[in-house]
Design brief:
transcription (chains A, B); 7 helices; mainly alpha; homodimer; MarR/SlyA-like (chains A, B); three-stranded antiparallel sheet; 168 residues; DNA-binding (chains A, B); WH_DNA-bd_sf (chains A, B); WH-like_DNA-bd_sf (chains A, B); DNA-binding
DNA sequence: TGAATATACTAGGACATCCAATGGTTGGGC
DNA sequence: GCCCAACCATTGGATGTCCTAGTATATTCA
């Protein structure tokens, strides 16, 4: 999106907060803004790696999830819950994956309300290849200090549990 | 989006990675996925707080940025650089803010190519009120352990500098 | 000075996400 | 056995982001 800035814009924002009398919330504001920006950078890298495969991150996530199930199939509402996105996003993703021949829709054998998503052979192959690409190009050199990775997992895990993502 | 899951889906994904022989990248994968999910949760909170003001996060960011400048005005390309989003996203946001009477567009006095975004009185007022709401409802109780906030700022700051966001 | 290049904004298209509303399907309570 | 609340997937509309041009203005340099 352009050349590097001479100063960290988030540190700048933090200073603005402190100067306006909001010093008590300046640090959390900076942390939250940093998460927003970090997500943006990581998403761009992932999308760039997936582009040659004709996949977006949303569609990749669904494909990968299916590839990890025993039968390569999953009810749509289950996918929605596990990926933690709205049912409409699943509908959208399945529409496109189906049109690309990577998954099929089939009726649930006993519950007439639910639809099963099934991985095709082409879908399973693409899941493998795109995962290998992500591992090689993104996850193997994420840009974090190795020691920081565990910190992040712990801090964000606590946050997500706190936010009601999961229990335990 | 539903009820809490019984197990952490990201820890689950990490196990899948390890079982498939990708143990060397399983931890970074988990960290990156956790950042994605955390951003999603935080964004939802922010949007929910801004909704009563008729603002989205993208429009709020622009409004807040303008409110911190001396004159309450900024060239569009400057806004694009500081917020680190595509120029077209700025065009889109200014279109809507202008329609809402919160900003005005005016020609740059010396450079005929650039357009200045100017905060209106209504825009300045709304920036103040919506910032107060965010401080009260989101930033004052972010859901992180207080000690973790500084960790996050440091880890993500290093990552962003590494990614070329800024220098120094 | 005049052509080539660089910069700034906008227009249109693709994709993802959320929300609200709709139409089937199930299953528990009476 | 029947009815209605709960559940499931889809559709349509609004918003945001990025990409690919396209138009206009500035700047550079031969």
């Amino acid at each position: 999106m352009g050349t590097p800035l001479s100063r960290d814009p988030i540190a700048e924002a933090r200073r603005n907060w402190e100067e306006h009398g909001w010093a008590d919330v300046a640090a959390p504001m900076a942390a939250i803004t940093a998460i927003m920006r970090t997500q943006q950078i990581l998403l761009a890298r992932i999308e760039s790696t997936l582009k040659p495969f004709g996949l977006t991150f949303a569609r990749y996530e669904l494909l990968a999830l299916l590839s990890f199930t025993r039968k390569g199939s999953l009810p749509m509402n289950k996918a929605s819950a596990l990926l933690q996105v709205h049912p409409t996003s699943i509908t959208n993703a399945v529409d496109r994956l189906e049109r690309a021949g990577l998954v099929d829709r089939s009726p649930h054998p006993t519950d007439g309300r639910t639809t099963l998503i099934e991985l095709t052979t082409a879908g399973r192959t693409l899941a493998k290849r795109s995962t290998a690409a992500l591992n090689a190009e993104v996850f193997s050199a994420p840009g974090f200090d190795p020691g920081d990775v565990d910190h992040l997992i712990r801090i964000l895990g606590a946050f997500r549990r706190n936010a009601g993502d999961f229990e335990e």
